[in-house]
């Protein structure tokens, strides 16, 4: 169906692989400390410094193997990332060379698969350019306001780990095997690449320098965290998306939104809900997946009587709010920031150290000022806690958090120093109010144009956030 091998070979030329490494390194460099490069080591034991020293040889070798069809991925190193309720999510770390190849293959695949995904109305919002979690939330809220207030709020159990390889390979064969055999072979190798389980090394990276790690064969599922995995996940669920829209939606008036393995089906008729749930369960079973049996993960809801949590938000007929769970996480992060400060630091630096730490949480990458690209004169994309939740409609939540933050700072400062922190001191140190930032950010909508330059040509310099937010408009 897709003839992409010639483009794959071109995208994996030594020149483009070298550029990809420069982009990857720039992305992984700390914006506040340019000496700190956060490129993780793969299971091959090669650090970014070692890889960079041998970069010219590496990219030539990688390009030759890609062209000849002899490129194999090194096993993924699994790490545990904290999840909710003291649970962990397994993330797969690829070797640096494999990351570069994945990113180049993603470039080849993305545009072609977007054409496939765009044959449906906008239903899938994860791992796609120009789509986001907040867009998915706003769309669900729009449907609720239109009267689609009976909801199947669902989650696919262990989605990434349970995808059957034989069914996924069937999709690869249909799309790529005949006209793109190189790409087909590479994707087949990617999903079946061995893994190095966390329990075999438990975070001790020195073991990878001394010996080859113990490998575990991957019989099903795809690695979480890989540059290609999100794209493959959307491809695997595309037939399910088609079924919901074209088959399930043919007999019932429904709306459908999916974000990775979380999805919502809305209807105006409560009598449709059980049918929707049962048919959805059966369809997922046909493709080797299952609805999560936990009633907190998969449930039937009448939004007029009970709100729903979706992607960190809480939605009801009256508005969009931050979920209680995420409010708790935010407060805990503020507490953690404060407890990480020892009493000597607070004594020596007065309240400034406390405020500075809090500002990082509130402002994200704009803490030291907004960065302006000197190439295009546009602003860097904002990444902060509030930016993610900017589509909320309940500003009272932010007022409550502002009050809580100030009370928490006052209490912490008093416990550490025995002194009371005067209100004018907080004002002088310019601690940001979430409510104030919310209105300033909202005012920017439609006016703010962000830099879209390649990381190789983008040249960011900092400008005061107050100058940009409160003086420009």
TrEMBL record:
Residues 62-315 form the Reverse transcriptase domain. It comes from the Bacteria. Pfam families: RVT_1. InterPro entries: DNA/RNA_pol_sf, GrpII_Intron_Splice-Mob/Def, RT_dom. PROSITE patterns: RT_POL. PANTHER family: NUCLEAR INTRON MATURASE 1, MITOCHONDRIAL-RELATED, PROTEIN YKFC. This is Reverse transcriptase domain-containing protein. It comes from Niallia endozanthoxylica.
């Amino acid at each position: 169906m897709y003839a992409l091998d010639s483009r794959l070979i071109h995208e994996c030329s030594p020149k483009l692989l070298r550029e990809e490494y420069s982009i990857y390194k720039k992305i992984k460099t700390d914006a506040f400390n340019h000496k700190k490069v956060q490129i993780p080591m793969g299971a091959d034991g090669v650090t970014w410094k070692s890889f960079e020293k041998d970069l010219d040889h590496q990219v030539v070798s990688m390009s030759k193997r890609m062209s000849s069809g002899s490129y194999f991925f090194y096993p993924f190193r699994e790490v545990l990332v904290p999840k909710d309720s003291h649970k962990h999510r397994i993330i797969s770390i690829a070797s640096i060379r494999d990351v570069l190849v994945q990113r180049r293959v993603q470039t080849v695949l993305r545009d072609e698969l977007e054409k496939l995904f765009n044959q449906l109305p906008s239903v899938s919002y994860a791992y796609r350019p120009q789509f986001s979690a907040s867009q998915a939330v706003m769309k669900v809220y729009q449907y609720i306001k239109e009267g689609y207030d009976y909801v199947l709020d669902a989650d696919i159990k262990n989605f990434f780990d349970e995808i059957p390889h034989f069914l996924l390979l069937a999709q690869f064969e249909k799309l790529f095997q005949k006209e793109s055999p190189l790409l087909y072979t590479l994707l087949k190798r990617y999903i079946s690449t061995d893994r190095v389980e966390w329990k075999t090394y438990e975070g001790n990276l020195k073991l990878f320098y001394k010996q080859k790690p113990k490998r575990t064969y991957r019989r099903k599922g795809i690695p979480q965290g890989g540059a290609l995995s999100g794209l493959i996940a959307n491809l695997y669920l595309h037939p399910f998306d088609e079924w919901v829209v074209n088959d399930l939606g043919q007999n019932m008036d429904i709306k459908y939104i999916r974000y990775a393995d979380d999805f919502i089906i809305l209807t105006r008729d409560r009598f449709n809900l059980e049918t929707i749930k049962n048919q959805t369960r059966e369809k997922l079973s046909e493709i080797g997946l299952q609805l999560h049996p936990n009633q907190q993960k998969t449930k039937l809801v009448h939004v007029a009587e009970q709100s729903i949590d979706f992607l960190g938000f809480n939605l009801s007929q009256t508005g969009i709010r931050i979920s209680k769970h995420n409010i708790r996480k935010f407060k805990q992060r503020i507490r953690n920031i404060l407890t990480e400060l020892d009493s000597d630091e607070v004594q020596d630096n007065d309240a400034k150290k406390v405020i500075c730490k809090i500002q990082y949480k509130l402002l994200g990458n704009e803490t030291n000022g907004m960065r302006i690209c000197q190439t295009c004169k546009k602003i860097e994309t904002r990444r902060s806690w509030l930016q993610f939740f900017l589509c909320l409609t309940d500003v009272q939540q932010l007022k409550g958090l502002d009050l809580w933050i100030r009370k928490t700072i006052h209490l912490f400062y008093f416990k550490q120093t025995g002194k009371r922190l005067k209100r004018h001191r907080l004002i002088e140190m310019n601690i940001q109010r979430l409510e104030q930032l919310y209105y300033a950010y909202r005012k920017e909508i439609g006016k703010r144009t962000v830099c879209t330059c390649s990381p190789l040509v983008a040249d960011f310099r900092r400008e005061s956030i107050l100058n940009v937010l409160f003086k420009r408009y």
